[in-house]
Predict the structure.
Amino acid sequence: DGGITQSPKYLFRKEGQNVTLSCEQNLNHDAMYWYRQDPGQGLRLIYYSQIVNDFQKGDIAEGYSVSREKKESFPLTVTSAQKNPTAFYLCASSPRDGNNYGYTFGSGTRLTVV
Amino acid sequence: DAKTTQPTSMDCAEGRAANLPCNHSTISGNEYVYWYRQIHSQGPQYIIHGLKNNETNEMASLIITEDRKSSTLILPHATLRDTAVYYCIVRVGNRDDKIIFGKGTRLHILP
């Protein structure tokens, strides 16, 4: 079945360490997105990519980095510069053409920095 | 900022229809209205979308006003499993297309 996979589901890291969250999709979607969600809050956009080798900052990109070397993959690195990295991270993908398609979301990665 | 406004929370009795409103007064002519829901600690799930006509699928119905400035998501027979946060979203639909999520409506289904 086609879908979008995020791994790991839970991640613990020490303060000051960089950590990379994986996001893979086999839906042949052009666009991919990373969102952050804090408890009781909505989703905030970190980075998004409409096409391979291209990506744009979202509303809260500081302290994060991404790459888009393959259509299927859009990993997110949470760097030591991110002041408060503990959160629930969601990856999504969508077809780029047209205005008639929704997003498919992964099941999320819950990052806890100790 | 999100282009939609929704009530923070709503209650609905199990078995009754849940009607979730959304205002999107600045919607453009080529923008669709999408609804998603997020069950606790899961990724959001697509429910339904529409442009100007009312839409229905196996999950819900979407009623869009004639002026397109508001819409209502209807869950016809709510169950406890429908307890979730429901997001109403207007999709921009150009090269910089990205979905902006508001805080949504927290729907509580009461037994």
